[in-house]
C-alpha cells in the first residue's frame, strides 16, 4: 500500500505565522499594566538576545558584553531625547552607530584572540562600561539614572500608551527575528557558521574569517543598541543596574537555554528568562535558587537548548527545501596552456624552532598534471601543503601561483585565487548539512546565490551524494565525509587542488572509487598536488612524483623512474609493494 502523503510545510512559514499571531494577539490578551510592561521588556530583551544568536549561535564567538551594547543604545536615546530634545528615531541611529563602532573595535580583538581570552576582553569592556555609567555623573546621571525619556511616534500614531508601545516593541522583535533567521541561510550566514564549525577549513575555502567575525560582533552590537533603545523608551527611565555584567550573562543564558543557533530558540530563551522570575516570585526566598537551577539544568541537559527538542518534533512535519538538479556539469581547472607552470616553489624552508621541517625544497607543478608528493612520516609533506595554502608562512623561499607570489597571503586570499585544499584529518563543518558545506565551498568562486547553488549542485552530483544533501555531515560514514570534503573544494572550481592523503582511512572499494573520481577530474583539466602514502594509488595517478626525506627533495620525475630509484627505495619504499600501473 502506498504511504499516505503527509501534510508538510516550510518551517519558516510556520514560524512567521506564529510570530505574527503573537505580535497581534499578545498585547490584547495581556490587560494589566504590569503584564504589558513585561511584554515590552521581553521584546527588548529578545532583540538584544538575537544579537547573541548572530555572534555566539552562528559565529561561535563568546561575548559577555551584550549588556554594554544594550546600554549604549539605551543611554543614547535617554540622553539625546531628554537633554538635546531629539526625537527617538535619530537618537536610535546615533546609539546604533556608537554601538557598531564599539562592536568593530571589539571584533578586531578577535583577530588575535579566541576562546577564553576573547571572553576576558568582552568581560573587561562590559565592566569598564558599567563603571563609566555609574561614575560619569555629569553625563550619565550616575546611579540615579535618567528619567523623562521620550517615546517615538510611528508616523501620525503617537505611541503614548503602554499597549500601543507593546505592539511597537513586539513588531520590532518580529522584524529583527525575520532578518536574523534570513541571515542564517545567506552567504554571510553560512560563512559565519563555517567559522564556528572550523575556522581553518573556512579560511582555506576562501572565507575571510576575520571579516566575518568583525561583522558578527558589529551586527550583535547593532541589535544590542536597538533593544536598548526600545527598552529605554518603554520604561521612560533607565539606570546603570540594567546594563551591568549580570545582565550580559543573562543574555548569554537566554541564547544558550533557548538554542543559540536558532532565532526561535533564542526568543524562547529570552521569554523564559523574562517571565520565569515573575512566575517564581511566589517562591519568595528560594526563588533565585530555583531559577538558577532551572537554567543550569536546561543548559547542561539540553545542549541544543529547548529549541533542540521542539525542532526534532517539527522536523516530522516540515520538509527541507528541495535543491533541484544541476543544469550544467562541474567546471574545474581554469583555462591556460596544458603543461605551463602553474605553481613554482623555490628554496622553500620552514623551521619550527630548531627543527627543519622543510629544508630548501624546489618543484614545479604544471597545468593539467597530477603531481604526487611522497616521503616517509615526518618528511615535511603536510608542512609543504600548509605553506602552499598559507596556513604557515615560510621561513624562506618563494612560492608563485599563476605567476604571482603568494607568500604572506592569508589562506582565504590564496583560495580565492584558485588554490584550494583538503586536510589530512578531514575538517568538515560538522553540524552543517552536506548541502551547506558544499555551498560554503562554492562561494569562493563568487557570483550570485543562483550561481553558487548551481556549482554546489554540480559538485555534489559529481561525487554522487545527491541523495544525502540534507544530512548533517557528522552523521555520515567516513567515506562519504571524505567525498563531502572533496565536493566542497570542487564547488569553488579551483585551478589547483592540494589533496592531503585523500585515501587515508578508505577501504579498497572506496579507494578505487576515489581513483576513478580523481581520474575524471584529471580528464577535466584539474591540476592536482597529492600527498599520499598508498603507492598503488600514486602509481596509478601521478604524472610526476617529488620525494621528500627529512624536509629535503631526494628525487623527482616520472613514476616508473622515481619508484625504482634506489635512493627512494632505500629512504622510503623499502619493501613496500608498488603496483605500478595496477
Ligand atoms: N606546527 C608544528 N610545530 C612544530 N613541529 C611541527 C609542526 N608541524 C609539523 N611539525 C614537524 O615537522 C616535521 C614534518 O611534519 P609533516 O607533518 O610535514 O610531515 P609529513 O611528511 O606530512 O608526515 P606524515 O606522512 O606523517 O603526515 C615533523 O617532525 C613534525 O613533527
TrEMBL record:
Transmembrane stretches, start-end: 12-30, 36-60, 67-86, 92-111, 118-137, 165-183, 216-239, 251-276, 288-310
ABC transporter domain segment(s): 343-575
Membrane topology listed for this record: Multi-pass membrane protein
MF GO annotations: ATP binding; ATP hydrolysis activity; branched-chain amino acid transmembrane transporter activity
Keyword annotations: ATP-binding, Cell membrane, Hydrolase, Membrane, Nucleotide-binding, Transmembrane, Transmembrane helix, Transport
Location in or out of the cell: Cell membrane
Gene3D superfamilies: P-loop containing nucleotide triphosphate hydrolases (3.40.50.300)
Pfam family, one: BCA_ABC_TP_C
Recorded GO CC terms: plasma membrane
Name under which the protein is recorded: Metal-dependent hydrolase
Record organism: Caldinitratiruptor microaerophilus
Amino acid at each position: 500500500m502506498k504511504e499516505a502523503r503527509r501534510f508538510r510545510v516550510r518551517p519558516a512559514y510556520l514560524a512567521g505565522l506564529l510570530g505574527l499571531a503573537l505580535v497581534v494577539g499578545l498585547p490584547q490578551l495581556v490587560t494589566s499594566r504590569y503584564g504589558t510592561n513585561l511584554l515590552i521588556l521581553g521584546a527588548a530583551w529578545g532583540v538584544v538576545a538575537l544579537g547573541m544568536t548572530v555572534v555566539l549561535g552562528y559565529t561561535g564567538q563568546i561575548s559577555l558584553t551584550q549588556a554594554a551594547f544594550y546600554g549604549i543604545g539605551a543611554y543614547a536615546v535617554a540622553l539625546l531625547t531628554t537633554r538635546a530634545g531629539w526625537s527617538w528615531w535619530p537618537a536610535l541611529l546615533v546609539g546604533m552607530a556608537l554601538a557598531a563602532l564599539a562592536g568593530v573595535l571589539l571584533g578586531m580583538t578577535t583577530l588575535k584572540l579566541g576562546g577564553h581570552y576573547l571572553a576576558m576582553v568582552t568581560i573587561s569592556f562590559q565592566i569598564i562600561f558599567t563603571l563609566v555609567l555609574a561614575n560619569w555623573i555629569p553625563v550619565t546621571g550616575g546611579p540615579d539614572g535618567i528619567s523623562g525619556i521620550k517615546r517615538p511616534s510611528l508616523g501620525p500614531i503617537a505611541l503614548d500608551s503602554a499597549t500601543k508601545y507593546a505592539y511597537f516593541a513586539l513588531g520590532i522583535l518580529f522584524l529583527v527575528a525575520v532578518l536574523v533567521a534570513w541571515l542564517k541561510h545567506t552567504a554571510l550566514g553560512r560563512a559565519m557558521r563555517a567559522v564556528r564549525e572550523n575556522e581553518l577549513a573556512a579560511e582555506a575555502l576562501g572565507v575571510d574569517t576575520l571579516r566575518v567575525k568583525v561583522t558578527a560582533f558589529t551586527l550583535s552590537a547593532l541589535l544590542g543598541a536597538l533593544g536598548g533603545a526600545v527598552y529605554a523608551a518603554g520604561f521612560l527611565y533607565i539606570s546603570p543596574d540594567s546594563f551591568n555584567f549580570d545582565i550580559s550573562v543573562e543574555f548569554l543564558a537566554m541564547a544558550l537555554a533557548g538554542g543559540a543557533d536558532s532565532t526561535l530558540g533564542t526568543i524562547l530563551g529570552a521569554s523564559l528568562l523574562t517571565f520565569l522570575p515573575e512566575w517564581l516570585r511566589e517562591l519568595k526566598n528560594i526563588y533565585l535558587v530555583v531559577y538558577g537551577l532551572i537554567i543550569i539544568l536546561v543548559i547542561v541537559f539540553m545542549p541544543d537548548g529547548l529549541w533542540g527538542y521542539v525542532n526534532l518534533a517539527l522536523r516530522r512535519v516540515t520538509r527541507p527545501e528541495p535543491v533541484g538538479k544541476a543544469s550544467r556539469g562541474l567546471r574545474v581547472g581554469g583555462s591556460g596552456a596544458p603543461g605551463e607552470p602553474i605553481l613554482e616553489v623555490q628554496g622553500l624552508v620552514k623551521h619550527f624552532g630548531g627543527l627543519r621541517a622543510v629544508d630548501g625544497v624546489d618543484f614545479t607543478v604544471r597545468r593539467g598534471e597530477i603531481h604526487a608528493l611522497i616521503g616517509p612520516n615526518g618528511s615535511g609533506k603536510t608542512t609543504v601543503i600548509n605553506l602552499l595554502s598559507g596556513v604557515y608562512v615560510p621561513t624562506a623561499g618563494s612560492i608563485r601561483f599563476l605567476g604571482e607570489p603568494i607568500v604572506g597571503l592569508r589562506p582565504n586570499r590564496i583560495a580565492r585565487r584558485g588554490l584550494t585544499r583538503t586536510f589530512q584529518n578531514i575538517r568538515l563543518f560538522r553540524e552543517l548539512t552536506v548541502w551547506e558545506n558544499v555551498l560554503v565551498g562554492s562561494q569562493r568562486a563568487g557570483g550570485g546565490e543562483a550561481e553558487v547553488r548551481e556549482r554546489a549542485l554540480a559538485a555534489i552530483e559529481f561525487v554522487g551524494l545527491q541523495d544525502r544533501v540534507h544530512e548533517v555531515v557528522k552523521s555520515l560514514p567516513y567515506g562519504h565525509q571524505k567525498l563531502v570534503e572533496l565536493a566542497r573544494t570542487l564547488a569553488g572550481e579551483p585551478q589547483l587542488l592540494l589533496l592531503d592523503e585523500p585515501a587515508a582511512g578508505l577501504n579498497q572499494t572506496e579507494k578505487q572509487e576515489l581513483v576513478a573520481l580523481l581520474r575524471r577530474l584529471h580528464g577535466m583539466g584539474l591540476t592536482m598536488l597529492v600527498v599520499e602514502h598508498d603507492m598503488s594509488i600514486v602509481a596509478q595517478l601521478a604524472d610526476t612524483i617529488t620525494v621528500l626525506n627529512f624536509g629535503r627533495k631526494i628525487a623527482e620525475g616520472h613514476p616508473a623512474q622515481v619508484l625504482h630509484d634506489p635512493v627512494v627505495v632505500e629512504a622510503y619504499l623499502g619493501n613496500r609493494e608498488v603496483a605500478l600501473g595496477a
